[in-house]
Amino acid sequence: MYSFLTGWEYLDLVGTLRGMDRKRLAQKSAALLESLSLYPHRHTPISGYSKGMRQRILVIAALMHDPEIVILDEPFSGLDFISALILRKVISLLASQGKAIFFCSPVLEVVEKVCSHLLILRCGAVVAHGSIEEIRSGTLMPALEDTFLHLTEQVDADKVAGSILAAINA
User: Fold this and answer.
1) Which of 83, 116, 86 shows the shortest CA–CA distance to 98?
2) Mind listing the pLDDT tens digit for each residue in 88-135?
3) What's this model's pTM, rounded to 2 decimal places?
4) Where are the beta strands (DSSP E) in 23-164?
C-alpha cells in the first residue's frame, strides 16, 4: 500500500492499473467505500487508517474489478467482528457465482466457515487436499485443528500449553 495516498486515490490507482472505465471506477469505489464504512474517510491518507481500515481498502481493491479469481491472504486480519462477518458473506456469495476463491489463513475456525476444499502444505509440499470432510475422514480426527497438527507434524499443543502454565505457576 502507498500510505501517502488517500483511500480514494489508492482505489483510483488500482482501478486505473486494471483498466477500469473512469466513471464505473468512481461509482464502484464510492459504493464499496460506503458499504464498508470507509466513505467518510476516503480523503484521509492511508497512513492515518487503522489496521482494519487498511484491510478493508485492500479488500475493495481486490474485488472492485469483479475478478474471476480472487486470492485472499489472511483477509480477516485486523477486521472487527462486523466487517469479518460481512467479508465471510461476500466470499460465500462470490463462490456461489462461480468465482474461484483462494483463501489463506492460519485461523482454522475461519477456514472451516469459509472454505469448501482445503490444500494443506508442510514445508512447501502438499500433505492433504480435498473437501474438509474428506481430509477429516482420512485422519479419523473430528476437529480440523487436530487434523492439521497430525498432517503437518507440528508440536504437541497440549504439552506446550502445559509447560507454559507450569512456568506461570512456578
Assistant:
1) 116
2) 999 999 999 999 999 888 777 888 888 888 888 878 888 888 887 887
3) 0.78
4) 69-73, 100-104, 117-122, 125-131
